[in-house]
Amino acid sequence: MKTFVFDIGETLVRDDRYWGSWADWLGTPRHTLSALVGAVTAQGLDNSEALKLVRPGIDIPAEYAAREAAGRGEYLDESDLYEDVRPTLARLRALGIRVMVAGNQTARAGELLRTLDLPADLVATSEEWGCAKPSAEFFARVLGASGAPARDTVYVGDHPANDTLPAAEAGLRTVHLRRGPWGHLWANDPRVREKADWVVESLHELTAIVEE
């Protein structure tokens, strides 16, 4: 294993602030939107469908732009990172592993992540690359930046449809992280168990995998 590539939402970063801010913007209780995110997750739908349930016919890109213009747009700081992120990424780099962050996020999220100065060799988002998971093009970009063959590249994520399954299809090794609604709900799915090389509870477990 030469390169570890990390998903972003609910792998490195908590989604609490993201969904809470959307609920506040749409004028709905945070618990309501959170429950709807869980409902669409259970149905295997994209999480943006929860916003459409709260406000049918919503133009999500337009609302996103309106939030930014109102000064209520995307924001990330150190408190949004899970506690195991910095020590794990730093330890992997100390072991000689190339560390990348690449997930389905906006260009703004990429900017915010880079300001956090994570112990990573590259931080990139789908909007910056012009392609998104689960497309083969996205994972081709991952491998192009990896600097290692597919079987020496490990993709770590919580979402089966966006992370574990398409990364495995692209030939990468995969880690399914039991974290967040997708990670917990689908961790025991037969397809995940078949395709994931490892299923872990914490990023701390990754260093043991490398040191085996």
From TrEMBL:
Pfam families membership: Hydrolase (PF00702)
Keyword tRNA-binding: no
rRNA processing is among the record's keywords: no
Keywords, sorted A to Z: Hydrolase
Transmembrane segments: none
GO terms, molecular function: hydrolase activity
Name of the protein in question: HAD family hydrolase
Organism: Streptomyces rhizosphaericola
